[in-house]
């Protein structure tokens, strides 16, 4: 009997798969395998390998019966290829001499139950190969999970044995894979896009994890596909305007893209593109933002409870990540709209190794305006209103552990006009633009430790020109102004996942700032003389250093994110330091409801001197100095989150205290005056903001969307402004309400609409003295005294925007017609106030019996934006 057993074993071991001689003879440890398949029998995979690689396999065919798998590897060593191929299987192998022997394991694994191994790797789109940020990776048997980081990397440690891993991501089909953990595993998980846009939602994290189970509060991730369906002015998809529809976020003037978060100023928002600051995120004086939706992969807005990895601003962080580029095949997207067009292409330079993404956008509003602008007699009026911007990204996958990315953005605006007649040529222009670049290296140091090293460059510049050239005597009068800021920096960030109970992030950064507060140049020249002059505010150089440490901890029903952020700012022989604790807590009260709380302190060393009106050339970036202290704040929030069926509800209350906030002194600006030091124009004071926010969303079905409501108060106080009395902030609005809905009539037709209501902005009226009052009429207000600063309220703003999309899929491309209407019922929302003086007759005659004639000063609200229809033709190929 024993002899028969030995003979049987010998027969099994002698079954050999002959390998075709497609490669020169080489040792097995040097063979690298490249192979890809979907749902294929393992025995067939081995048969394919034998046709291309010189290796001998020995196995029992019955061990491989009905075993199928999917795999995608590029230049992976044979040992790692086999480990991945047989993940989740009971088949083991040994490499012996010039052959590989497979056998079915009968080893008792009970002793290994307490041993843990790690599954790590990347989650990505199966077609575009874009990594997916915030995808949920959940181990069913252990009921624990994690999410991918900003670069699509994840790591999860589990006990030895069989595990079912479910990977989920919004608008993607869920993916389930089985793993048998007998060692650490490195893998790439590819997901298929379900392309069901009506199920795309805005959530606090970009995953299907219910809102009440997340530690983070006061945060939204905006899916780019959802942004593209929101109706906006002139049909141009806009990330910043979409944020204005969220609770806690207020818009500036009607139609502009600025955001003011929880009572903060515009400069208190840290706006990042691929980790690099954007100092002016607006095109065309705020009508559009600088972000091209076709080049953007993800957008995250954090308005409170800031994780320790973020610093440098008091109010919010807008983290925008660009797409990385398709490593498999070339694809593109384009759009032709009413006033602008754009085009994006992405594809491999070297398949599975090197990819390139290019995106360009240009408005032709200046061409349209010039065509319809009336020209009279010999007058030549040339308006200029345009912008162009470009995005680019190069990706190089060196191997499974190393990836390099080079990304960049270049944008430029020009706004103004020239007027020419037979006598003179007059010009009035504003030019501004951003330039940024980032060189990034991702390194998977181990299956639990991930590093990202980045070199950054950012440059912002604004230039104005007002001039008149008289032809008769060739004289020239001109006023020029330049201002800007340039940054060069480096940073390194680490993700360390020691267990499912801890997710640790830590890192450091250093940035060298060069501030150019402004150069005024005046030119007054005649043929015989030149009496021009210059005034330059001296450049200021500063170095900012940051370090941070945070840990996301899970203990039963409690989750906590605990962190510390340290900053140092060196300027003009002055060193400012700051230690900023951060804390976020979540308690799972029931299966469907949680209670959350957060506390964070922030410091800010950079300031935007602004007129609290439109973004004008007088808005300049300046640093903290030995006379200007850094801005500081602390914020606390408490909220509840709950989910029932397709609905999620979040309610938050918050309080924020701000110190050393900046403002121009009354009547001052940096352009018109010539002070010995720009600090003489500045006042510093305090601010506070508090309120409540409600966010209700429907996440699935043909009808999706959300309702947002904000009740808030925001005040400022300066010793030398408004007689030292506190006053409402410019964008203090008591009520903000928004509704955003999308309805899929069919796969080919989709409707989207949003309606907003905002309390009017707070403004200051000049003080007047007069003796008679002019009667009221529509939007006409009579005043006797301007009162305190920002004591007057403009009329409320409300409007309805809607759009309809017609989608048609062709064999090689997909086209979409979008028709939209902004302010569809033609609400005359106030944009600015116009002061008028009018002649009136009094009721009492004078001593001669004639009517008493007097004047009255009135304020009239002016509206600039009527109903605006638009259309666009979009194509994907």
Would you mind describing this structure in some detail?
The chain has 877 residues and is mostly beta strands. It has 3 domains: 2-104, Phage tail protein beta-alpha-beta fold, CATH 3.55.50; 110-195, Sandwich (Immunoglobulin-like), CATH 2.60.40; 322-876, Maltoporin, Chain A (Beta Barrel). Helix content is 5%, strand content 57%. The chain contains 6 helices and 54 strands. The strands form 11 sheets. It has a 22-stranded antiparallel β-barrel. A 5-stranded mixed sheet has the order 14-21-22-17-18, with no helix packed on it. 39% of the residues are buried. The model is unreliable at 1-26, 107-113, 196-208 and 769-784 (pLDDT under 50).
Give the arrangement of secondary structure elements.
Elements: H1 2-13, E1 16-17, E2 32-41, H2 42-50, E3 56-58, E4 68-77, H3 78-85, E5 91-96, E6 99-104, E7 116-125, E8 136-139, E9 144-147, E10 153-159, E11 161-168, E12 175-181, E13 185-191, E14 219-221, H4 224-227, H5 239-243, E15 249-251, E16 259-261, E17 269-273, E18 276-277, E19 282-283, E20 288-289, E21 296-302, E22 316-322, E23 331-337, E24 340-350, E25 354-363, H6 365-372, E26 380-397, E27 402-420, E28 424-444, E29 449-470, E30 475-499, E31 502-526, E32 529-530, E33 533-537, E34 540-555, E35 558-571, E36 574-590, E37 593-604, E38 606-609, E39 620-623, E40 631-644, E41 647-664, E42 682-698, E43 703-717, E44 727-728, E45 735-744, E46 749-758, E47 762-763, E48 780-782, E49 792-793, E50 797-809, E51 814-822, E52 832-845, E53 851-862, E54 868-876
Parallel strand pairs: 3-6, 7-13, 17-22
Antiparallel strand pairs: 1-3, 2-4, 5-6, 7-10, 8-9, 8-11, 11-12, 14-21, 15-16, 17-18, 19-20, 21-22, 23-24, 23-54, 24-25, 25-26, 26-27, 27-28, 28-29, 29-30, 30-31, 31-32, 31-33, 31-34, 34-35, 35-36, 36-37, 37-40, 38-39, 40-41, 41-42, 42-43, 43-44, 43-45, 45-46, 46-50, 47-49, 48-53, 50-51, 51-54, ...
């Amino acid at each position: 009997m024993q002899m028969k057993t030995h003979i049987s074993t010998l027969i099994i071991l002698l079954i050999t798969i002959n390998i075709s001689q497609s490669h020169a003879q080489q040792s097995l440890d040097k063979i690298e395998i490249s192979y890809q398949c979907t749902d294929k029998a393992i025995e067939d995979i081995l048969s394919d390998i034998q046709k291309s690689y010189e290796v001998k396999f020995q196995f029992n065919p019955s061990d491989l019966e009905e075993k199928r798998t999917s795999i995608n590897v590029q230049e992976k060593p044979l040992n790692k290829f086999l480990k991945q191929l047989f993940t989740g299987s009971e088949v083991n192998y040994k490499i012996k001499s010039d052959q590989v022997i497979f056998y079915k394991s009968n080893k008792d694994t009970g002793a290994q139950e307490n041993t843990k191994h790690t599954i790590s790797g990347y989650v990505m789109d199966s077609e575009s190969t874009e990594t997916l940020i915030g995808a949920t990776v959940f181990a069913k048997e252990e009921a624990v999970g994690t999410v991918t980081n900003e670069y699509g990397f994840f790591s999860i440690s589990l006990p030895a044995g069989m595990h079912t891993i479910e990977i989920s991501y919004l608008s993607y089909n869920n993916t389930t894979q089985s793993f048998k953990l007998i060692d650490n595993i490195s893998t790439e998980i590819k997901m298929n896009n379900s392309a069901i846009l009506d199920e795309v939602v805005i959530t606090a994290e970009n995953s299907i994890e219910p809102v009440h189970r997340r530690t983070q509060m006061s945060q939204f991730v905006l899916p780019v596909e959802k942004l593209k369906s929101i109706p906006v002015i002139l049909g141009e998809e806009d990330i910043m305007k979409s944020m204005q529809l969220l609770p806690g976020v207020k818009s500036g003037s009607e139609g502009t893209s600025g955001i003011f978060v929880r009572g903060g100023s515009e400069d208190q928002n840290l706006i990042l593109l691929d980790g690099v600051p954007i100092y002016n995120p607006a095109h065309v004086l705020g009508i559009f933002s600088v972000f091209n939706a076709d080049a953007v992969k993800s957008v995250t807005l954090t308005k409170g409870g800031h994780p320790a990895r973020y610093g440098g601003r008091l109010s919010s962080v807008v983290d925008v990540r660009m797409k990385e580029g398709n490593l498999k095949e070339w694809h593109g997207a384009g759009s032709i709209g009413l006033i602008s067009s754009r085009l994006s292409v992405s594809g491999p330079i070297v398949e599975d190794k090197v990819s390139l993404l290019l995106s360009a956008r240009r408005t032709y509003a200046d061409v349209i305006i010039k065509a319809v602008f009336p020209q009279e007699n010999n007058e030549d009026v040339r308006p200029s209103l345009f912008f162009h911007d470009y995005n680019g990204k190069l990706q190089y996958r060196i191997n499974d552990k190393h990836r390099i990315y080079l990304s960049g953005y270049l944008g430029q605006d020009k706004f103004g006009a020239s007027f020419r007649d037979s006598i003179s040529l007059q010009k009035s222009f504003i030019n501004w633009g951003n330039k940024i670049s980032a060189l990034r290296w991702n390194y998977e140091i181990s299956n639990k430790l991930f590093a990202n090293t980045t070199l950054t460059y950012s440059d912002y510049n604004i230039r104005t020109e007002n001039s008149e050239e008289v032809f008769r005597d060739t004289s020239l009068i001109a006023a020029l102004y330049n201002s800007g800021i340039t940054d060069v920096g480096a940073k390194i960030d680490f993700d360390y996942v020691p267990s499912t109970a801890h997710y640790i992030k830590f890192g450091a950064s250093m940035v060298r700032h060069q501030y150019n507060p402004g150069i005024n140049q005046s030119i007054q020249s005649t043929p015989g003389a030149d009496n021009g002059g210059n005034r330059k505010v001296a450049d200021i150089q500063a170095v900012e250093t940051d370090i941070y440490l945070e840990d996301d901890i899970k203990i039963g029903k409690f989750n906590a994110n605990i962190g510390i952020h340290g900053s140092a700012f060196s300027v003009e022989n002055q060193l400012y330091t700051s230690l900023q604790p951060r804390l976020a807590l979540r308690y799972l009260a029931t299966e469907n409801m949680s209670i959350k709380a957060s506390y964070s302190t922030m410091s800010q060393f950079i300031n935007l001197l602004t007129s609290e009106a439109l973004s004008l050339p007088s808005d300049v970036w300046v640093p903290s100095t030995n006379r200007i202290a850094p801005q500081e704040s602390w914020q606390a929030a408490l909220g509840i989150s709950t989910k029932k069926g397709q609905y999620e509800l979040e309610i938050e209350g918050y309080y924020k205290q701000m110190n050393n906030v900046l403002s121009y002194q009354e009547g001052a600006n940096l352009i018109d005056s010539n002070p010995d030091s720009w600090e003489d124009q500045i006042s510093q004071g305090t601010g506070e903001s508090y309120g409540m926010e409600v966010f209700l969303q429907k996440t699935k079905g043909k009808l999706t969307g959300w309702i947002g409501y904000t009740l808030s108060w925001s005040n400022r106080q300066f010793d030398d402004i408004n007689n030292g009395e506190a006053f409402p902030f410019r964008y203090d609005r008591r009520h903000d309400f928004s509704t955003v809905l999308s309805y899929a009539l069919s796969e080919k037709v989709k409707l989207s609409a949003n309606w907003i209501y905002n309390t009017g902005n707070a403004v200051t009226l000049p003080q007047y003295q007069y003796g008679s009052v002019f009667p009221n009429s529509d939007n006409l207000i009579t005043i006797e005294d301007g009162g305190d600063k920002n004591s007057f309220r403009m009329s409320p703003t409300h409007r309805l925007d809607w759009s309809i999309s017609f989608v048609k899929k062709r064999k090689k491309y997909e086209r979409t017609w979008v028709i939209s209407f902004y302010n569809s019922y033609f609400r005359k929302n106030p944009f600015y106030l116009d002061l008028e003086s009018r002649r009136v007759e009094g009721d009492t005659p004078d001593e001669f019996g004639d009517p008493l004639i007097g004047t009255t000063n009135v304020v009239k609200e002016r509206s600039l934006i009527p109903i605006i229809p638009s259309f666009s033709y979009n194509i994907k190929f």
